[in-house]
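ZP: hey, is the nicotinamide-adenine-dinucleotide complex queued? I don't see it on the tracker
AM: it wasn't, my bad. submitting now with these inputs:
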Amino acid sequence: MQGIDQAVAVVTGAAQGNGRAIAIGLAEAGARIVACDIQEDAVIRVAEEIRSRGGDAVAVTLDVTSLKSCHIAALDTQRRFGLPAKILVNSAGIIRRTAPDAPSFDDDWAAVMAVNATGSMNMVRAFLPQLRQSSGRIINLASIMSVAANPGLTAYAASKGAVLQMTRALAHDLSPEGIRVNAIAPGVIETPMTLATRENPEALARFMAHTPMRRPGKPEELIGPVLFLASDASSYVTGALLPVDGGYLAA
Ligand SMILES: NC(=O)c1ccc[n+]([C@@H]2O[C@H](COP(=O)([O-])OP(=O)(O)OC[C@H]3O[C@@H](n4cnc5c(N)ncnc54)[C@H](O)[C@@H]3O)[C@@H](O)[C@H]2O)c1
């Protein structure tokens, strides 16, 4: 695919769920994958899986909440492939379902913001010199919760609102350097993150009542939208939020 074939693509959260599917999808489109995650064994297995399917991939263990860890990953990337990264997909994320007066609120708020918001920015900052060299593309995993909200999700929705606004603001900052920055907004996708929601009939019904397609999505259904935003097919698209939500945000 034009703009993706042979490009170095860095995907965080690649050990499972959406990040894993996106890493595999980018590899099948010809990208060389740097699969990053805090779960060392699992991310190594994903890189092995990509290689066993004929793709090119390395695994990098990192904690996106640490800027230093992201800088080390950036050095590793350049060293392993001898090329600057061209595609950065920020998929590492966590969710904590917490009431505003819960005793754990402080910890939950800090953890969710650190991974989802600060972690995405840490990766952008660490890879910026490479993305400048490659006229790169950044794709952030926002959410339907970037613009809508549900009970118990104050921290998560706030963090995903931050991801959306970070995407828009970065589009302003980085367009002059030839870097495009976009986000996708998945609805309920069948990953470990949403197991609790999908196993709770009331919570699932609340989401599905607002989802014209009346079903959760599969991680593989994020691949096409990501390939679009990573490829030259979206050459005049930046600062955009692309819903991938079965119509949730249209309801
Ligand atoms: N699943 C959904 O319905 C849904 C909907 C909208 C948005 N999203 C977003 O998609 C992204 C991926 O979610 P998912 O459903 O695949 O979740 P998941 O829990 O299945 O996977 C998240 C991955 O991120 C990794 N991770 C967590 N903290 C990390 C850290 N500090 N450093 C490095 N890696 C870390 C985890 O180890 C895990 O492999 C998240 O940003 C999430 O908010 C998911």
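AM: back. The first helix runs from residue 17 to 28.
ZP: great, adding it to the tracker
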